[in-house]
Amino acid sequence: MAEEGQVIGVHTVDAWKQHLEKGNENKKLIVVDFTASWCGPCRFIAPILAEIAKKLPEVTFLKVDVDELKTVAEEWGVEAMPTFLFLKEGKLVDKVVGAKKEELQLTISKHATTAAA
Q1: Among the options 7, 10, 42, 96, which is catalytic?
Q2: Please, where are the H alpha helices in the chain?
Q3: Catalytic residue among 7, 30, 31, 39
Q4: Catalytic site includes residue 67
Q5: Bridge partners of 85?
Q6: pLDDT digits 0-9 by tens, 51-110
Q7: What is the pTM of this model?
Q8: How far from 24 is each of 2, 38, 95, CA to CA, in Å?
Q9: Residues ≥6 apart with Cβ < 8 Å to 19
Q10: Catalytic: 66?
Q11: Residue 97 burial (C-beta neighbours within 10 Å; 0-12, 13-18, 19+)
Q12: Can you give the pLDDT at residue 112?
């Protein structure tokens, strides 16, 4: 299953549901990167997200390709790439749209600290 300290690619709806259920149980913050192979900004931000993931094993980082899991992207209202959703216990607590490194780091920090409290 999931490795701590890395971004986990989610390739099936079943895997997506399993990660959400696990997040509900362990109450960890889940950061989901909705991406696409053809998206330039997504390729720019991916290594930055990977670096953040290494430093925060208490946060679960998932990557969803919107072309691969269209239904999941539609279900969560993802319209632009990259979109980062912040989930706690199955609920959306925040969102960052675009490859905005500083905003992404700040939002992760904000929610990661409240997850640990």
Answers
A1: 42
A2: 13-26, 40-55, 70-75, 101-116
A3: 39
A4: no
A5: 32, 95
A6: 999 999 999 999 999 999 999 999 999 999 999 999 999 899 999 999 999 999 999 999
A7: 0.92
A8: 15, 32, 18
A9: 2, 8, 10, 30, 60, 62
A10: no
A11: middle
A12: 86
